[in-house]
Amino acid sequence: MDIKYVIKNIWQCFLVLVEFAGIATLFVLITSQIVPCKDFIDYIQRGTLGLAIYEFVVFISLNYIVDAEKDSANAIITSYKHAIIACETNNEEIKKKVSDMIIKQTDESMMNSSKTVTEYRSLEKLMNENRISELKYNLALKENMFEACDLKWKYSLLLRKFK
Question: Taking the model in full, what pTM does it have?
Fold first, then answer.
């Protein structure tokens, strides 16, 4: 077995344990200020409750973030596919439709990130210059990015940050 793989897994387990222990301890400390714990079981119950609440909030929040990233990636992938078709067929009507979609997506009312807006502008430039191979290369990258969205850690903020 590869030692780097083992070390990576140990590191990830350590991060999760630190996160969970920290959250449980913090919750116990805060609630103990309001109502003191009576015995060891009370500490365990509060820690477990705190961890459950934390995981619920993290799971819901990160799922929304991942869904937004997937939605953005899907829209960009679709735009790349349309741009490739327009360039390969030299169809100005399709190019116009893609350009109109890019204008819509780069509008501030769409609430896209600056990275997404930059990506659309790059797409438009490549399409206007008819650079099909670069469009196809970028499409492959975006499809990989779309698949990677499902691999993001949905249960741990520390793993998501340091992975």
Answer: 0.72
